[in-house]
């Protein structure tokens, strides 16, 4: 009998034995139902969110375009509201979506926070986590696999059938691979239909422009899960093989599960917070404010910090007062002010993001010893519910804010006279055509290449775990004792 | 016999390890709690300091006109963190502890968020409530799942039946030593917490202790019930672990997603839209209606008038700001009532799910739940009103900036109250425990201990 045939037979045996055990079919059905439920609810939530966001986005645009004739700087303060859209795969793995803000008010001079995350609107229940397909696949399936797999070899030993198997010429690696594949088959029976449902839901999604990208992400993610599951099956069967008894195997596996899903993530979080403490909002604002004050107040045309600028402008244009300048002086000053304040803010913001990234790096490094974290990162990344995707949104919102403020400043510089009293002066008002000309905000998502680049580590780690356990199986499985 | 049962219990290495692990995890969680307290304390101290600095700095820059100055000045209201919150951090890492507001419109300011790492929020804190809710039951399960079956499977059950006075009282003692040892660890941890975190002994802490004890007893009662069916060890272990997974993972997480779908809160977004329209649209409208609305809301300022010949006055400016809040008022009310609905739903559901009940109650007594946040929002509204009433007359009559005693504007503290309803707090546990114990007793009676 060749090797593959033996593995095949052993796999079949594991499958048949487990499937006929009481409760197994029920469990398979239950997990399928749970996954169907969470995929559907996730999908409905996503559609609801997208509809809301598009509706509000349209409303904001309408109001912007239909704003009456006015001074451009008032328009800059009227500002824009931007609502965060979700990537079409967000229904699959909620990731950190619930902790990310959904709406941001963009105005001149000031960077507001992105507010109203789901967590802001939730009570303590959120701390128990959210049930999404991703959560079930990452947390619950391993537990199930360990339950099904803990005695796949140890029971044979306890019943004395392992001796018979070895006597019949089965070798250690064949035994482990055979049983692991049988277990894998059971595992797949819980996820294949939901994976297909998830795939179909992608095509039902209202916005089809991202279909190609989301299908690609989906396939990579599913592949990641399949590798993750195979690792789990190998771990379960291997532990079953090397443990003294079934009970010991179960205890070890449940210990691993606790370690992987609860302890390592929490502990690395604590380490990260200790090593890289982040400033509070008030500290952050205060340090930005302190630096900004050095740049002077751009709203005040007589500000001493802008006096030098004024003098040089007057000299260059050969005039002796700002009223004689060929362009709007206060617009010019504000453009300069916006540039400086944005630079200041961004330098602080970048430092902060860098700090967050350092903190997250600890989690990423912890993934080397915890495949759960690796698949979690990969799944979030592919679903577009991770920090990188969010940062991409934040950057776009800030860039749009800057564009808006500076466009309004340019309009003021070019089109508003120098002799107007203030922004209420009718001669200082621009027609609303200018508002229509200013483009709407369109959120773009990170392209696949960038996402893969961010998730390269997660993919590598999963691949390494698979290789490692494949090697372990070959190297150590001959030590499996028959009794 | 009791002595022998105790001796037997402590001779098992697994029991010692279980208790020590609980102790270590608990101590780590206390350290995390202590760091959390230090951090919030720091925020409060620094905010107070920055507020003073910022006020003085702005006063030195904008000392010509009260209106201009008040455009910039920010005043903080701290949501006081009781030390007990260190044991159950709850939503405290999501909502900022201090919110600073100007006298401009409130809606634009009050929902601004803290700087937080969303990945860390997702992973959550390992506070004491987490150790209690997730880890204690696991140890309890591992202590109790084979209470009878280990004797049967080890072949000692017949000895017990022939030698012990009554097998039932043998089991009770055996369970008793487990209950006492776990409770001892729990109480030691709470005792350490009391002194290490300097928690005052009041009804909140008392409720915290009682709920923790009840939660531990609940899991023992459940274990007792499962054991009473007299199945083999692995069936018991699996049944109990499935209970754990359902109570700690599937049910709460499912309800969470479900309630979000049931009570969507678009108001969070419409509030922002309404507020922005309410304020900014006023710039281009005639000034009289804006002022009329302002006088209608605050008749006491009717004596201040906007000089017709002027295009701008601070009176008109703050009247516009006020309209921003008023336009959003109905949305905000709706938003708050939706939040209450969600809170009520989860409180109702928690009667059926002791894990959720425990978490929510511990958060409530630690003033770290959403109820506290809603109270804080109201307090912030009152604080903002108070600031307005203090400064509006000074702005409108342009009192000299230098005459104000600015040093008195220190950080204000909001102290939330929470009255423990003992019945609601403890009844769910009592009901569950009684039901489990009765059921177990009938099981033991009908099945006989054989």
Characterise this structure.
The complex is a heterodimer of chains A (483) and B (450). Chain A is built from 16 helices and three strands. By secondary structure, chain A is mostly helical. Chain A has one domain. In chain A, α12 packs antiparallel against α14 (387-415). The longest helix of chain A has 42 residues, at 24-65. Chain B has 450 residues and is mostly helical. Chain B has one domain (2-447). Chain B has 17 helices and three strands. A three-stranded mixed sheet of chain B has the order 2-1-3, with helices on both faces. The two termini of chain B are 20 Å apart. The relative contact order of chain B is 0.15. The model of chain B has no long low-confidence stretch (mean pLDDT 90). The chains are: A mainly alpha (483), B mainly alpha (450). At the A-B interface, α2, α3, α4, α9 and α10 of A face α2, α5, α6, α11 and α12 of B.
Brief summary of the model shown:
The complex is a heterodimer of chains A (483) and B (450). Chain A is mainly α.
């Amino acid at each position: 009998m060749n090797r593959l045939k033996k593995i095949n037979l052993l796999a079949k045996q594991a499958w048949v034995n487990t499937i006929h055990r009481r409760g197994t079919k029920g469990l398979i059905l239950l997990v399928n139902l749970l996954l169907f439920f969470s995929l559907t609810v996730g999908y409905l939530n996503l559609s609801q969110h997208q509809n809301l966001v598009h509706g509000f986005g349209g409303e904001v645009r309408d109001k912007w375009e239909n704003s009456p004739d006015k001074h451009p700087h008032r328009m800059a303060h009227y500002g824009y509201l931007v609502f965060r859209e979700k990537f079409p795969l967000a229904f699959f793995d909620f990731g950190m979506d619930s902790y990310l803000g959904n709406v941001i008010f963009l105005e001149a001079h000031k960077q507001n926070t992105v507010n109203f995350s789901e967590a802001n609107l939730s009570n303590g229940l959120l701390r128990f986590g959210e049930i999404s397909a991703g959560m079930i696949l990452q947390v619950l399936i391993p537990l199930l696999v360990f339950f099904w797999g803990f005695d796949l070899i140890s029971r044979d030993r306890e019943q004395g059938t392992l001796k018979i198997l070895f006597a019949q010429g089965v070798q250690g690696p064949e035994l482990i691979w055979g049983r692991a594949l049988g277990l894998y088959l059971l595992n797949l029976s819980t996820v294949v239909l939901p994976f297909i449902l998830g795939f179909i839901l992608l095509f039902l999604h209202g916005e089809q422009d991202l279909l190609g990208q989301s299908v690609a992400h989906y396939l990579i993610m599913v592949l990641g899960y399949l590798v993750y599951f195979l690792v789990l099956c190998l771990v379960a069967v291997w532990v079953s093989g090397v443990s003294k008894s079934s009970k010991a195997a179960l205890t070890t596996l449940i210990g691993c599960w606790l370690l992987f899903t609860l302890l390592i993530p929490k502990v690395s979080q604590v380490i990260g917070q200790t090593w890289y403490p982040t400033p509070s909002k008030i500290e952050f604002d205060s340090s930005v404010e302190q630096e900004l004050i050095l740049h002077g107040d751009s709203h005040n045309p007589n500000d001493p910090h802008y006096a030098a600028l004024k003098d040089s402008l007057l000299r260059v244009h050969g005039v002796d007062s700002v009223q004689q300048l060929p362009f709007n002086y206060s617009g010019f000053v504000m453009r300069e002010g916006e540039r400086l304040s944005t630079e200041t803010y961004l330098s602080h913001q970048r430092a902060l993001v860098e700090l967050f990234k350092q903190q997250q790096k600890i989690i990423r490094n912890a993934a080397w010893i915890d495949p759960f974290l690796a698949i979690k990162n990969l799944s979030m990344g592919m679903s577009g519910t991770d920090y990188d995707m969010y940062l991409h949104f934040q950057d776009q919102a800030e860039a749009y804010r800057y564009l808006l403020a500076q466009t309004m400043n340019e309009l003021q510089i070019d089109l508003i006279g120098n002799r107007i009293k203030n922004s209420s002066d009718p001669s200082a008002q621009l027609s609303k055509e200018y508002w229509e000309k200013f483009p709407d905000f369109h959120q773009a998502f990170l392209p696949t290449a960038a996402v893969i680049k961010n998730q390269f580590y997660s993919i590598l780690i999963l691949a390494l775990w698979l290789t490692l356990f494949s090697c372990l199986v070959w190297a150590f499985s001959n030590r499996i004792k028959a009794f | 016999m009791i002595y022998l049962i105790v001796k037997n219990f402590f001779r098992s290495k697994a029991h010692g390890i279980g208790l020590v692990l609980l102790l270590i995890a608990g101590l780590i969680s206390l350290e995390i709690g202590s760091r959390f307290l230090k951090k919030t304390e720091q925020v409060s101290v620094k905010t107070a300091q920055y507020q003073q600095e910022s006020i003085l700095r702005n006063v030195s820059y904008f000392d010509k006109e009260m209106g201009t100055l008040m455009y910039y000045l920010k005043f903080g209201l701290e949501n006081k963190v009781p030390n007990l919150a260190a044991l159950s951090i709850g939503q405290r890492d999501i909502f900022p502890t201090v919110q600073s507001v100007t006298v401009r419109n409130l809606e634009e300011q009050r929902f601004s968020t803290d700087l937080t790492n969303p990945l860390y929020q997702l992973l959550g804190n390992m506070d004491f409530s987490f150790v209690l809710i997730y880890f204690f039951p696991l140890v309890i399960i591992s202590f109790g799942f084979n209470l009878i079956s280990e004797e049967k499977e080890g072949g000692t059950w017949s000895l017990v039946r022939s030698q012990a006075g009554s097998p039932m009282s043998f089991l009770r003692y055996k369970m008793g030593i487990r209950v006492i040892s776990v409770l001892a660890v729990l109480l030691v941890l709470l005792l350490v917490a009391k002194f290490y975190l300097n928690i005052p002994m009041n009804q909140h802490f008392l409720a915290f202790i009682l709920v923790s004890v009840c939660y531990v007893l609940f899991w023992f009662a459940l274990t007792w019930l499962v054991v009473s069916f007299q199945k083999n060890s692995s069936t018991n272990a699996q049944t109990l672990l499935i209970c754990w997974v359902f109570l700690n993972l599937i049910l709460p997480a499912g309800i969470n997603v479900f309630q979000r779908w049931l009570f969507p809160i678009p108001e969070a977004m419409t509030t922002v839209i309404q507020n922005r329209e309410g304020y900014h649209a006023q710039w281009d409208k005639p000034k009289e209606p804006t002022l009329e609305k302002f006088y209608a809301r605050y008749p006491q300022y009717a004596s201040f008038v906007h000089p017709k010949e002027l295009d701008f006055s601070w009176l008109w400016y703050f009247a516009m700001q006020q309209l921003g809040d008023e336009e959003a008022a109905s949305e905000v009310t709706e938003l708050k009532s939706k939040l209450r609905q969600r809170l009520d739903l989860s409180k109702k559901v928690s009667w059926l799910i002791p894990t959720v009940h425990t978490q929510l109650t511990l958060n409530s007594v630690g003033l770290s739940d959403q109820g506290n946040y809603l109270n804080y929002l109201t307090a912030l509204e009152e604080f903002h009103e108070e600031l307005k009433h203090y400064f509006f007359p000074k702005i409108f009559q342009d009192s000299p900036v230098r005459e104000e005693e600015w040093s008195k504007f220190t950080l204000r503290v909001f102290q939330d109250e929470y009255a423990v309803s003992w019945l609601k707090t403890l009844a769910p546990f009592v009901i569950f425990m009684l039901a489990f114990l009765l059921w177990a007793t009938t099981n033991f009676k009908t099945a006989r201990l054989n």
